[in-house]
Amino acid sequence: MYSKYFGELLVKVITIFILLAEVLIATLALFALYKIYSSGTLDFARYTFIGSSLVFIILLIGLRIIRDYEGASRIAIYFGVTSLGLLWVSLA
User: What is the pLDDT of residues 12-43, one digit of tens each?
Assistant: First the structure.
């Protein structure tokens, strides 16, 4: 599906990049939970929300390029939730 819009090698590279970014964000989220529990600081939670927002923007752009509007609308919901989380952490 994606190979007709992008080259097959580019699809593999982008997939690996997104996978590594998600693993990094999940690790950062676990560390953020530890920091919130141990010292009450929200700095790493903020970094986690920013990283997650960037990945969702990358996914949104990719889905819009291949004209998968239904998938883009689903990702937009998660981006909105992440934006609200970032707002909550910034105001706290």
Answer: 888 899 999 999 999 999 999 999 999 999 99
**Is pLDDT at 5 greater than 80 in this prediction?**
no
Burial code (b: 16+ CB inside 10 Å, e: under 16) for 4-43 equals eeeeeeeeeeeeeeeeeeeeebeebbeebeeeeeeeeebe
Taking the whole predicted model, whether its pTM rises above 0.70 is answered as: yes
Domain boundaries, the chain: 8-91
Distance CA 47, CA 41 (A): 12
How far is CA 53 from each of CA 1, 3, 38, 39, 73, rounded to the nearest angstrom? 25, 25, 25, 25, 15
Residues 64 and 70: beta-carbon distance below 8 Å: no
55, 21 contact by CB (below 8 A):
yes
